[in-house]
């Protein structure tokens, strides 16, 4: 029989926590897909002339670029997951659709992104719209890929193998809320962007044009955007570009720098590939923390569900895989019968399992986090100061030492990356508002927890640096450059960049020169060689780290 305790050994959920075998000739990752692929032998294309051949396009005057975050009254807010089904939750003894509780908001990095209120970061009243008197001048954007299938070794696929294995051998019989398992089959591929994920990125791209299009006025080069080489990452970048530029012209409107994501290549958008302390497992701290927490919040669910299935013994690990299946099936095929098996409390427990996974796996509580995030900060510093980034860390100096592949004069920078890269960058930038509750306990959810992975790294999460010109003060209208950071529409207070913190700006602004001094200090404080290559002591979980750095002796 399969050992289901192994289920979580490869807790996947976060990119980079596990290593997928790569074919030597390809850096595209897994490429299994849903089934339809058109054959080459359609009707002769001469029967279907191009629109340009047909002509009669009607009037084609183009309009002005939009600039909603500058010209609008407020920033638009996203809250739906259309066309996915609003997942059910267990109310009493019955799976039901709740009007007040949406499980999809409690899936950590598997949640579809939604707009977060700045109050969640401790900045009530702040908005992504330009503050009064400020003019948006430049954007530095990090964009995660959209919804994807689970990886081949993840709990969903392991659960399917286990269940189908029992069905084939001794057999099982499920009743009640589990009855659907008698006929359930696993229909998901692996790792690729789902159709919903494509939609998310297209929507992110078109929305970005509406929010910031005007920044392109007067820019005469072809912009360069960057992505890693994995299939879902490239697909995400292309879908975004199609939404941003429009499907008729996007292919000629930008250049895509595809950076190899594979060990040992330097890549700031996949920084774990050349930062491999103690054998590339980052001590598995995130998984350890999640596994410990599962024993706290899921035993009741096991007790409730076990009487509904005969011939198969449930464990907390198996039930955890069932929660993951709710999330993955919903974002892949639109709905899942696994969702309604769990109560509101259990969904909050599931979210916390992912908060812990990120905090200790690729957040403030892991000693390699700052080192992994610092390469992007070096590149950001280069872009903000119009200089070639410094070398070392995960910076690829071949690509970054050339303004063809690493331009320094763009009004918009788009970098496509992973959930855990955004979380390590957030730690490297010392955005300490997320650390308000201190190191996360494995025994309970702290009331003041501010580290919410569904805010930080959901599917299609977006972290945006806005460079703005703002008046020096209310009585001096001279404009000076400022910067601030916006995560899924919520402004982040710059509490952890000492020099910015003293400004205590209610809109999250920091004078650009002050911010630059601050990130130079952050870069200086990381010892990449030690953090990524030394054989230091495993801090274990829980631990008291909050800066994503090891204790260096
Ligand atoms: C179960 O049996 C089916 C049909 O014979 C087979 O296709 C499948 O591979 C088996 N699954 C497992 C996990 O043994
Ligand atoms: C830098 O990136 C290029 C292109 O992806 C790659 O060929 C090269 O090997 C990389 N350099 C290092 C040190 O990883
Ligand atoms: C379930 O666990 C019980 C008690 O440990 C054991 O007697 C039984 O054989 C197990 N059933 C299966 C299907 O593994
Ligand atoms: C790759 O990273 C290592 C470690 O920081 C560095 O020593 C090396 O110079 C880098 N190579 C390139 C081409 O950037
Ligand atoms: C970058 O390119 C310049 C000019 O070719 C060269 O002098 C310098 O050594 C390069 N720096 C790195 C880090 O490769
Ligand atoms: C300008 O405004 C600041 C507060 O916004 C105030 O402290 C300062 O005294 C004012 N200076 C003048 C010259 O009015
Ligand atoms: C307004 O601020 C600018 C920039 O700090 C400064 O140079 C200028 O003297 C100030 N003007 C007044 C009237 O204080
Ligand atoms: C990062 O934040 C911590 C906690 O607020 C602070 O002690 C530290 O000085 C900050 N680092 C920098 C470079 O500002
Ligand atoms: C790392 O340190 C531990 C404990 O001191 C030791 O057992 C282990 O062999 C070391 N590993 C390497 C690669 O040096
Ligand atoms: C963390 O710090 C607290 C308070 O200083 C201390 O009681 C606790 O033992 C520390 N925990 C670990 C794992 O070091």
Radius of gyration: 24 Å
Residue-averaged pLDDT: 92
Structural domains: how many: 1
Number of strands: 12
* Run of helices and strands: HHEEEHEHEHEHHEHHHHEHHEEEHEHH
Q: Helical residue percent?
A: 25-40%
Low-confidence stretches: 1-26
| Shape label | globular
Tally of separate helices:
16
CATH topology title? Rossmann fold
SS-derived structural category: alpha+beta
Q: What distance separates the N and C termini?
A: 47 Å
Strand fraction equals: 5-15%
CATH architecture: 3-Layer(aba) Sandwich
Ligands in the model, by name, code or SMILES, are: 2-acetamido-2-deoxy-beta-D-glucopyranose
The CATH homologous superfamily corresponds to: Phosphoglycerate mutase-like
Organism: Irpex rosettiformis
Protein name: Phosphoglycerate mutase-like protein
């Amino acid at each position: 029989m399969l050992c289901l305790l192994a289920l979580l050994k490869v807790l996947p959920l976060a990119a980079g926590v596990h290593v997928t075998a790569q074919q030597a000739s390809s850096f595209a990752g897994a490429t299994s897909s849903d089934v339809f692929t058109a054959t080459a032998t359609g009707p002769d294309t001469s029967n279907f002339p191009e629109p340009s051949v047909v002509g009669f396009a009607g009037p084609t005057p183009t309009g002005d670029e939009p600039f909603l975050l500058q010209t609008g009254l407020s920033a638009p807010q996203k809250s739906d997951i259309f066309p996915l089904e609003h997942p059910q939750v267990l109310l009493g003894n019955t799976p039901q659709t709740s009007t007040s509780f949406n499980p999809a908001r409690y899936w950590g990095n598997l949640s579809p992104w939604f707009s977060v209120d700045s109050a969640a970061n401790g900045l009530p009243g702040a908005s992504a719209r330009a503050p009064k008197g400020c003019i948006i001048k430049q954007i530095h954007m990090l964009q995660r890929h959209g919804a994807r299938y689970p990886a081949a070794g993840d709990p969903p696929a392991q659960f399917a193998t286990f269940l189908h294995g029992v069905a084939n051998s001794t057999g099982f019989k499920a009743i009640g809320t589990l009855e659907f398992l008698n006929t359930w089959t696993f229909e998901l591929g692996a790792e690729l962007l789902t159709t919903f994920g494509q939609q998310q990125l297209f929507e992110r791209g078109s929305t970005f044009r509406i929010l910031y299009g005007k920044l392109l006025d007067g820019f005469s080069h072809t912009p360069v955007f960057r992505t890693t080489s994995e299939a879902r990452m490239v697909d995400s970048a292309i879908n975004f570009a199609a939404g941003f530029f429009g499907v008729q012209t996007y292919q000629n409107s930008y250049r895509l720098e595809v950076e190899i994501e594979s060990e040992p290549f330097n890549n700031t958008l996949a920084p774990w590939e050349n930062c491999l302390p103690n054998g590339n497992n980052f001590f598995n701290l995130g998984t350890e923390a999640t596994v410990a927490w599962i024993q706290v919040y899921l035993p009741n669910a096991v007790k409730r569900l076990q009487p509904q299935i005969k011939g198969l013994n449930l464990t907390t690990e198996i039930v955890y895989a069932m929660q993951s299946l709710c999330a993955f099936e919903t974002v892949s095929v639109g709905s899942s019968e696994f969702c309604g098996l769990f109560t509101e409390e259990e969904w909050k427990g599931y979210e916390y399992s992912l908060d812990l996974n990120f905090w200790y796996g690729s957040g403030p509580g892991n000693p390699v986090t700052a080192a992994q995030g610092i390469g992007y900060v070096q590149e950001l510093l280069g872009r903000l100061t119009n200089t070639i980034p410094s070398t070392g860390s995960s910076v690829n100096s071949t690509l970054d030492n050339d303004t063809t592949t690493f331009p320094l004069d763009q009004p918009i920078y788009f970098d496509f990356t992973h959930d855990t890269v955004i979380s390590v960058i957030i730690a490297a930038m010392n955005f300490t508002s997320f650390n308000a509750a201190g190191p996360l306990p494995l025994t309970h959810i702290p009331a003041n927890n501010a580290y919410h992975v569904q805010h930080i790294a959901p599917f299609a999460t977006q972290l945006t640096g806005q460079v703005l010109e703002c008046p020096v003060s209310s009585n001096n209208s001279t404009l000076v450059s400022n910067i601030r950071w916006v995560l899924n529409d919520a402004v982040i207070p710059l509490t952890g960049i000492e020099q910015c913190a003293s400004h205590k700006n209610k809109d999250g602004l920091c004078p650009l020169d002050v911010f630059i001094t601050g990130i130079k200090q952050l870069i200086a404080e990381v010892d990449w060689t030690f953090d990524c290559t030394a054989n230091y002591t495993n801090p274990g979980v829980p631990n008291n780290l909050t800066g994503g750095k090891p204790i260096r002796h």
